[in-house]
Predict the structure.
Amino acid sequence: MGLQSRALNDLSQLWASIEADLSRARGTLPHDAESYGALLEYEDYINQNELELACDALEAYADRHPVNKEFWLLLRDAARKMRLPDRASRYEGRAGASPR
């Protein structure tokens, strides 16, 4: 496997890992959350591989609805992988203030 192929494979694995974190965070939300606009946007962004925007959409939901600590920690993990340290710190702080 050439260097370029390896780099693309590594990038694909990173994207899959970020998407998995975001999907798990989405999975912590109640089923009736599906009708909320930000989560409809989240689905669109995931389908377009716009992972940072998908993260934004989940955060927008959480700004208006209670979420648990696990949600914030999963967003933190995704933000770290996307090299967004300010967001990762913010999410970690919000995890500390969340129930469970």
Observations:
- The chain has a mean pLDDT of 91.
- Residues 3-96 form one domain.
- The radius of gyration is 14 Å.
